[in-house]
Description:
Layout: E1 2-9, H1 16-28, E2 32-39, H2 45-56, E3 66-71, E4 90-95, E5 100-104, E6 117-123, H3 133-136, H4 139-147, E7 153-156, E8 173-176, E9 182-187, E10 201-206, E11 209-215, E12 227-231, E13 240-245, H5 250-253, E14 263-267
Parallel strand pairs: 1-2, 1-3, 3-5, 11-12
Antiparallel strand pairs: 4-5, 4-6, 6-7, 8-9, 9-13, 10-11, 10-14, 12-13
Amino acid sequence: MTGCVHIICDYAPGDxxxxxxxxxxxxxxxxxxxxxxxxxxxxxxxxxxxAVAQLxxxxxxxxxxxxxxxxxAPRKDLKTARKDNEGEGLVYAKLKNGAQLLVVNSGYSLSFxxxxxxxxxxxxxxxxxxxxxxxxxxxxAVAQCLNGDLTFLDKLLDHNCPDxxxxxxxxxxxYVDSFGNIKTSIRSGNKLLESLxxxxxxxxxLNDTRRYATVTTGSFSVPEGELAFAPGxxxxxxxxxELFKRGGSAVKEFGNPLAGSRIEIxxx
Length: 268
């Protein structure tokens, strides 16, 4: 069997954890399956959710060949001591484009893709018994999913219920790429953008830092060293807007804010 498994985890690139997960998946997966890795920051469910949506909700006729596995489990669903390394549970989602997701349902990990979900189910996969569930518990479910064996699924869940999947956070840092560009959760169609036109100057308050940016239709439409606020490369038909510093790093300009940090934007 051929196919592709996208894996999103909050382990650093090259960390031993990645090698152990890939080895465990290779033991379970059928045929020639490509494994694609994406790293997010430790316990960063906002960036996890952003990456889940960007990789799984893409408009392609081959989406039904994709299985995406994401695990970012800060274990914040309970504040008390955890028994037997229990953590947030693994859920199954099938998107409207046919992609299948196995995601540890923590924080905002499914929030950015919520509107694309056609079916959401709990799974029978154990959420305890190991500190390293991505290696010890979850690969079997990924393999079953690829094989079309969905006997590991459990009850239906209401993906529109905010207690199950919270709404996507508004006006926050959603993801920072390797160039230092800040991908925000402000999306085309947002009321905030209705009053803005190309060439406008806006005041950005982020991470207790105030800077000024030019509204553009393209990130490179500003002189070297200046900030642009423009629709970015993520989000497909309704792009997420980005803060981009030409010839520099937008995230450094704002003192390296974390994903989830609130962004305030006002027209000058």
